[in-house]
Write a structure and sequence with these properties.
The chain is an all-alpha fold. It has eleven helices and no strands.
Length: 198
Amino acid sequence: MTSAFAGLFLANSHAELAAAVDAASGFLEHGGVPAAMYPYCLFLLGWAELRLRRDTQRAVRFLETALRDARTANLPILAGRIAANLLFALAYAGNFAKARDLLEMMDATLDRSEDWHFYDGGIEIFARGFLDFWQDDLVNAERSFRLLVDSGGHGASYAALGRVYLAYCAAIGGKPGEIRAAHEQILAISKNEMHGIP
């Protein structure tokens, strides 16, 4: 089991990550996971499938089941991380109403411990900004993206996506100073594939 799920973290290319997700999913489907580990494994599968951007609905299914199981098992930290990823998955899939409902239900005290921050830091802030952006609330969208960028993160993190959307906001606003600042922010985005993500 450990080997099957370790691949979700060790994959360095998109193809490797896709193969790792498929292998771990097959392992899960054949009952190779102890019941106590099931919500964790579902979360990791949903998280990795979401990173692939190949089947967002599948990621949503994994994450919804994981969230239900984590809440049933009284695992609040896990449930908070799952909810943040589910929020992004729903928003990315264009299911804004369901994403807004989840956002309203999410605990305001999401765990922000450093151990998971490298992989997932800022996902809920980005998802909130993404929802606002695509629902034409540019003021709140820009506020979320600025908060995300100001919080730091490596060049392929959600802060990098925040930089992209700040550039969109600047382009829409049409103010030369903001466009120049956005250009500088774009330069901080990694050009390398990391963990299977371009």
